[in-house]
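dumping these here so i dont lose them again. two proteins, back to back, each one seq then structure tokens. dont judge the mess
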Amino acid sequence: MKTILVIIDGLSEDKIHELGNKTPLEFACTPFIDKIIEQGHHSQRTFYPSNMQPDSLNCILAILGVDERYIPKNRAFLEALASNIHVEHDEVVLRCNLISIKDEKLESFNGINLTEEQMKNASLNVKTTGEIKFHHISGYRNLIVLKKNREIMLMKNIPPHENVGSSMAEILKSFEHIEILKEFVLHNKFFINGHSYMFYPWGPSEYSEIPSFHELYQKSCSCVCSAEIVKGIAKAMKIDVAALKNSTADINTDLKEKSSAVLRELKDHDVVIAHINGTDEASHRKDLSGKISFIEKIDSDFMREIYNNACDTRIIVVSDHQTSSLSGRHEKGNVDVICFEKTRGKE
């Protein structure tokens, strides 16, 4: 029997009083997910290793059965791999968000109030020294690559999406002793329409190797995804990556394109992984109503197609980690795991 694994990033969270003490998944109108739960099995568990924080890198690799000793410290190398950016063994790669600042505090981790075109143009105007290689990936996401040293590898990790509202003075302390990063940030501040922006480097990462999916399971696998971290995991594990034209890593993604790609890839692979990231993005923005609407869109545009057209297939729907739409942060706690075997004639 073939398998479709649907990872809905940041789907799960604790019950919310304003929703009648329900979670967003329980509150949303999801007739097809409800059918899968009714005909299958719904449980809860955690995926992040006990000595690590709950984030997509750790949790998705754990879901895929990768031993924690092979889980990289941070994700930037895998995002570089996804974007075909070469990283030498003596180099370090850092994520570099385009952030906004208001009243000396982190206002947003994702270039709020800027269009995709404005963010791209800002990245094209970044000033660097010869020691730093800057790469624009998509939207607010960028990477910088430079020579590895002990100071950079030991810098405190302060993810911007986990620290909205925090003092910028405290956030920038993470690399106050690293002159090359201080200068990079200082020279790349800018203002648009009265808003203050900067490029913020964080999460140092280095070259790493992960066991392949075939090594672990002796099965072929394809991945349908848009988020760079998931593409990077797929490439590192020698998983095929399906071509997509209109899908994004946010709530504006084309879910019908993704469902069609899953069904197409299933013809030639034993396992197909689909990753949907918009629930996590909405949660980080503290957009509860947007998260609920997107869950309903996942059900109508994606799960309906999978449920109606996959036969003799095991369908697994899982959240990698909790992301609270109230705090905007990843939280420790159980996540939803829904399993169902769709056989011919079973409706």
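---- next one ----
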Amino acid sequence: MIAGNGADLAVIQLDIDDPAQGQAADAFVMAQADGTPFHRTAWLRAITQATGHRALILAAVAPSGHISGLLPLHHVRSRLFGKALVSTAFAVDGGILAQDQRTVAALAAAAEQLARTIGPVPIELRGGLAPGDGWERREGEHVGFVRPIADCDEAELLAIPRKHRAELRKALANPALMVETGRSERLIRDHYHVYAQSVRNLGTPVFPAALFRAVLHHFGEDADIMVVRDADRPVSAVLTLYHAGRIMPYWGGGVTDARRLRSNELMYYRLMGHGRARGMTLFDFGRSKAGSGQAAWKKSFGFAPRTLVYHGWSVDGAQRDISPANAKYQRRIELWKKLPLPLANLLGPMISRGLG
């Protein structure tokens, strides 16, 4: 037991390697309207397998044995970026998932106790319910983009603002652009090739290839890859998650030529149709930095930005600083953009593991 909150509620640490406990946690997540892919044990296992960051799940349990709240965490440790308890690592959402405020308070107190025990280390909650007094509220840095999927392809096309729609029509009229979706080895390799080039061009270290493979493995049919090819050359690619009626393109990008070809526009338009065919009703375009070019691009696709709220706590007020907006990282980012792709792909995973 990690902590208690009276005789009728206890917070325990679940063992996600125990099938019964893992199934109970996932059943609770899937039953909650605010549950996300990042609360699921598939995400926790994938991150641990690919990066070594230990997964921990705090569960508030009633005397009946039923779960009333969860807080999934990763213990992220890095020589470059420091240590933290993160809910959850490499995610854009997560945080406390609970049915009432008493459960929220119990989980927040248990997380604080755990942070003191293993550190002390700071806690970072990405989304979820507000943990209460003593926690820092962080908002304004990121925005999210979600809207319903239209009833058909033509309606989806008309939902895109006119200027951006004209760009998409150019891609639709290009017979050389072909789209393929699935989980094959070829798609996995093509996705990594495109994604690695895309993030290098942005000055960001690429994640380990093992991370994408682990997510695909643990999510099973709830994750796949879409690749756009110009003839036989992959030019845009995205790894997508599916959760409770929501399609979430998560790790995506394009090569330098993608802008000229409008292949990213084509990819996300086709992905909306793919999600509709799978029975999805919401398209979650993920988060972007507020005021960034990426945020403006998503808005021009017909998505309204929504401010994301995160929370943090530490014993002494200290926190990790992994934001690329920090001035101390700017020179490194510019240098990274100039690295040969093979060298960036060699060094990137060693650095990015610590970002969490």
